[in-house]
Amino acid sequence: MIESQVDGLRVEYRRGKQVVLHTDHRVGVVALPDGPTIEIQPKIGDPNLVTLLRYANGAEPTHLSRETELESGTNFVDTVAALFLEELEAVLSQGLRREYVDVEGTEEYLRGRLNVQRQLAGGPGKTDFECDYDEFTYDTTLNQTILCVANVLSSVVDGTGIAGELREYESRLRRRVTLREVSIEEAERIELTRLTDYYEKVLVLSRLVLKHIYIEDIVAGEGASYSLLIGMNDVFEKVVERTARETVDERDGWSVEGQARTDNLLRGSPPIRMRPDFVVKRHGEPVLVGDAKWKTGVKNNDVYQVVAYQTAYDAPCVLVYPDNDGAVENDYSVKNGHSLAMLELPTGVNTADVHEFGRENVERFFDFLSRTVG
């Protein structure tokens, strides 16, 4: 038996040419060396994956022309690529943004500031100038990121139409932007301003791809392969946090804190910090603390974890699950007097309309919040 490991996926080669794939909570596609492309579907219920990703990442469609294509059963990479294309088109319709960037260059004439250290390192016969200067350019890390992702996706999509569009936009971008490999760390350090906030959605999807795309030989010497595997835990956490925020948006004095940190439960060194996925507050005071769980059943460790949050925040708690046909919904009373609930959100809503999807989820969460904290 031979095993090969990539992030989130274990490939097991057994006797008789049998291949077994093992994965956890990830969904996506895997192209095996010289073999088929395998699509890994969510094992929980039957969620509308396209709408779920859009809602989680705030990527409401800006171009409806691709809706039919997305509903027709394209594979996962093509789906992500189509979403990326929609947001890239929206950015380019407003124009690429130029910014000042720091440049270190060797120039025939003095430009900007002379870098004395580099100049002296060139020796006494040096006739050009080592300069540091600011250049107003399209060739920024932000634009390089979206070009990098367009290039990556164009090489892995199956749909010829989507691949052609990606290559067309890639060609347009390369007239002004340098194509290079951009790391997820670089992409996550990008800070948008009021002048570049129209890049927000395409940047979210770019980070999603850069974080989860894997292009390499899965088995040494057997040809190039790729996988795009996205952790549904992360996606569902974003869905739950957004649902909670939209539920309390119209309530005066209410707010939601995502990935809240508490360090007042355990004292000692080194400190142990705990991060519930969200905390609902009313006039600054916690009234509900919760965790999102992309699972088909309630695990004891999840209950222990959320009860610890409850102790720290002195508030009711909830474990939020995707649609399980009511199988995990339940209510408990904890000895400290607070309630502990298991809530399912309607993630299986069969719609391509992100707003309708959000409305269904918000209504379910609103009903629960009203019953729990008023």
TrEMBL record:
Q: Which organism is it from?
A: Halobacterium jilantaiense
What's the protein name? Answer: 5-methylcytosine-specific restriction enzyme subunit McrC
Q: Do you know which InterPro entries this protein is assigned to? A: McrC
Q: Name one Pfam family in it.
A: McrBC
The taxonomy runs:
Archaea, Methanobacteriati, Methanobacteriota, Stenosarchaea group, Halobacteria
